[in-house]
Amino acid sequence: MDNQKKCLYEKFGGDQQVSELIDQFYYKVLFDKLLRDKFLKADMSRVRYQQKRFFSQMMGDKNTQYTGRDLIEVHKNLNITNQQFDKFKTHLKNIAQDMEVPNQDIDELLQHVENHRDVIVFSK
Description:
InterPro entries: GlbO/GLB3-like, Hemoglobin_trunc. This is Group 1 truncated hemoglobin. It comes from Paramecium primaurelia. Pfam families: Bac_globin (PF01152). By secondary structure, the chain is mostly helical. The chain is 56% helix and 0% strand. The radius of gyration is 14 Å and the shape is globular.
């Protein structure tokens, strides 16, 4: 299969790599003073599970269906700022780079994430 035909999920390396990305990501987030407060009351194993499903689906995995709560419902009372959303993306980018994901795939991932800004950032 040539690389043009592969979805981002496949280019990343599938389930194991997406799981690794999300696990590393939340490890970083929970040590980030700007972000960790948003997760203090969260069930982190559930957050990670849902986030892995969401990312897998967003990245083109046809076999994964995100079944978690609506993104607006999840985020509307968290007062997430654009600065926090940007920091979230920076962590993802750095971890993907550490995982030696090619830059164009990282850019594609970050664009997918960016497309959800409006349902996550409510504190303008």
